[in-house]
Amino acid sequence: MAMPGRIEIEYCTQCRWLMRAAWMAQELLTTFETELGEVALIPGKGGVFDVRLDGVTIFSRKEQGRFPESKELKQLIRDRIAPDKDLGHSDRQ
Q: Could you give the domains of the chain?
């Protein structure tokens, strides 16, 4: 079995995005109880809101010009660490 994944959510402290980052972390930990080993919240600056899985950026607010949707992040993570996992309502369009 593969090692549990590590998620990092780097958020802008100047923008006060801690609550958004913490909520996203909670959503991911709830969905991927056995597939994730850790979710780290990393204080940053300059409007950053990046999500990394095992060191690889899977979503960047600066690149996308918006925040990630919970459903979207769950699908991105699932496709990388648990492709057979059913996300229930998050899989429906």
A: 5-91 (3.40.30.10)
